[in-house]
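Me: I keep going back and forth on a fold encoding question. No explanation is needed for now; the record alone will do.

Assistant:
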Amino acid sequence: MTDSLPIRRIDHVRFVVGNARQSAYFYRNCFGFDVVGYAGLETKERNEAGYVLRQGEITFVLASPLRAEHAYNARLAAHGDGVMDIAFEVDDVASAYETTTSRGAVGVQEPVVARTDEGEFETAVIRTYGDTTHTFLNRDRYTGVFAPGYLPLDPGRYNPTTARPVGLRFIDHIVGNVEEGKMDEWVEFYERVMGFRQLVHFDDKDISTEYTALMSKVVQGGDGRIKFPLNEPAEGRRRSQIAEYIDFYGGPGVQHIALATDDIVATVGALRHNDCSFLRVPKAYYELLPERVGAIDEDTERIAELGILVDRDDEGYMLQVFTKPVEDRPTLFFEIIQRKGSKSFGKGNFKALFEAIEREQARRGTL
């Protein structure tokens, strides 16, 4: 299929955080990212600090305000640390902006070309669910480290020889949580405005436990390279994880980012060594695993030891594991995923996973 809005890839994900330097230290030492660029007072940036982190094809940007009047402060008060923007690399920024706004997208920033000694860097921004945004960018004629204002990181801040990648390769999908009754509206937005297509639909019969339920639809674009599951809460006996997220985040937003690896056993082993915290499912899950998914290449005892979940579809199987929230608020978390042919999202794991999340909610007193 050829998308009506050509998108090359997810270029980067921008987080707004209270202290970018400390957050960069966390993502570097826990998740194994290399810090490759910096913007701040030392680079003549007077209003905010930013760190560019990279591993494989994944780029995160962590930004913090430096002054009380900066707009990021209101965002931090409302949401805490979280994802502000998912940026797409496109062939033609002006065309992408004109196309999406003509189809009903709310424009945040019209196309702007920044010209420096390193070339031309073009961007435009539209709004999606909540106050999350999408940036369209093109750096074909730009040779800098990331974007104007960013320079290679001063080795005095971090010793580059101690970076410890854990094998993360690219972003598999990014999940958004929206209010009850709004999922179809945002699915339609991505189809009509962005030229995405619906890939799969899960209802409250697929994703439910004794207490809570949710519904989810997955849209994809960029010729299948970009996948966005969109969740909304469904009626249940108690408050679902989606409702908890919306309460503590203060509205719709990015719930989790799935990061792909070619060797999930090695990656999760390294992350656990780095003191990354993951959700756990009961041991009984692994007793039933051979019957449910059949033979797999990995050592099932090691899979169980690391808490990795496995699911199979008609095209193969996949392995996945989920971190606990990485902020004090029960909002943003990460998924580590390896696909062995499967293109699914772990439907067979939903019940075990959501029961594990509910146990954490009960510990927080928010279930």
In short: The chain has a mean pLDDT of 90.
